[in-house]
Specification:
Layout: H1 6-22, H2 35-39, H3 49-61, E1 67-75, E2 78-84, E3 93-95, H4 99-113, H5 140-144, H6 163-169, H7 176-181, H8 197-211, H9 217-233, E4 242-243, E5 257-260, H10 261-272, E6 276-277, E7 280-281, H11 285-291, E8 306-307, E9 328-332, E10 336-341, E11 346-353, H12 359-371
Antiparallel strand pairs: 1-2, 1-11, 3-5, 4-5, 6-7, 8-9, 9-10, 10-11
Helix pairs in contact: 3-12, 4-8, 8-9
Length: 376
């Protein structure tokens, strides 16, 4: 009978009717969340559970986002979401790449707090202290803020001439810090921001020279490893925290620090609490405040951390148009992020592999997770 055909006819006609009534088609319905996506989020994550699960799912599935291997969201000190790609899990250690620089910055801060280093002194590098060497004017503060003035241009072309590549894989690989320290000045110390992995290797050498002066590679490596374990891994409850060392016994503190996703999140929480762990001040609060204060030559960079601020140029590492002003981050090659937002009581970790052309897609997906949480 004709009336039996009306429901299916009306259903087929409905999109056209909506266009006619509203002037544009109705938005497509969102795909249902998979059970795994929803189960990765706690029952009460501080925001709508399904909305957070969907935002995290986008970091794994959105076109152009790359390969996400782990995401952790901590709110008010609790893990409220934790998700891994196939083949990865809580026991997997992840390379931090340049997030290692932030770890190195904290270790330097501990030596400053101990009175063994001074921010505005030249670091203990013998070749810089020779009479007439202008590199003797470089201070520890300038190294931490990436404004040493040394010829350390990162990611220059062609790639095999780029300082970080030459240092790590070519003529500098056996003693990376010595290669970095031998480079001439390109600018007056303190005058120009020049983000660089070689600078972090110099900081790692300063660690070793301070902890094990005038010793060989094995002693240098052991001294730094034991210091990192005793002063950071144990009190911060980061048992997986490890680093790689070059043949000279220098920690590769610009790129080769490893930890599980949970331990990277604990590191973020430590910074969110301004160096405090369960009420114990592991590094002075003033040091973390220094780390997240804008460098005089780069408003979006502190001291081994990136800040959620405009750079004053084309560089945009985070999302200053959307996120809170106090948000800062450890950021690593191929899309490693520890995002810390004190005003939201929030830490977000993303680990994976995203090529540089797709970084903006990834950052946008992470910004959407952060935006779900209100500022206090």
């Amino acid at each position: 009978m004709p009336r039996l055909l009306l429901p299916s006819f009306a259903a087929a006609l409905l999109p056209a009717l909506l266009v006619a009534a509203c002037g544009e088609p109705a938005p497509p319905a969102e795909a249902p969340l998979t059970p795994a996506a929803l189960e990765a989020v706690a029952e009460n994550p501080g925001v709508d559970r399904a909305t957070l699960a969907r935002a995290i799912d986008a970091v794994f599935t959105r076109e152009g986002v790359g390969e996400t291997r782990a995401v952790i969201v901590m709110h008010r000190g609790e893990i409220v979401a934790e998700r891994y790609a196939g083949g990865y899990g809580r026991g997997t250690t992840f390379l931090g790449w340049s997030m290692s620089k932030t770890v190195t910055g904290v270790l330097i801060g501990m030596l400053v707090a101990d009175g063994r280093l001074r921010l505005d002194d030249s670091p203990p590098i013998a070749r810089w202290q020779r009479a007439g060497d202008p590199r003797g004017e470089i201070t520890l503060r300038q190294l931490l803020q990436m404004r040493s003035g040394l010829r350390h241009e990162e990611k220059s072309e062609p790639v095999y001439t780029s300082p970080e590549v030459r240092m790590m894989f070519l003529d500098g690989r056996d003693d990376m810090a010595a290669w970095a320290e031998a480079q001439p000045l390109e600018h007056e110390p303190g005058r120009a921001f020049d983000y660089s992995t070689p600078t972090a290797m110099i900081l790692s050498d300063v660690l070793a020279r301070t902890l094990a002066p005038d010793t060989g590679p094995a002693q240098r490596q052991r001294a730094v490893s034991e210091f990192m374990r005793a002063r950071m891994a144990v009190p911060l409850k980061m048992p997986s925290l490890t680093a790689e060392y070059d043949r000279a016994g220098t920690m590769m503190g610009g790129s080769m620090v490893w930890a599980t996703a949970r331990d990277w999140a604990r590191f973020g929480e430590f910074l969110r609490h301004e160096g405090s762990v369960e009420g114990a001040q592991t590094v002075p609060r003033a040091w973390v405040e220094f780390m997240v204060a804008p460098s005089p030559r780069a408003p979006d960079y502190g001291a081994t951390t990136w800040l959620n601020r405009e750079s004053g140029g084309e560089r945009e590492m985070l999302f200053p148009e959307e996120g809170p002003a106090d948000l800062f981050a450890a950021v690593g090659h191929l899309g490693q992020y520890v995002l810390v937002s004190p005003s939201q009581k929030l830490t977000v970790v993303r680990l994976g592999k995203t090529d540089e052309p797709d970084r903006d897609v990834l950052v946008d997906a992470l910004a959407k997770i952060v935006a779900l949480y209100p500022e206090r």
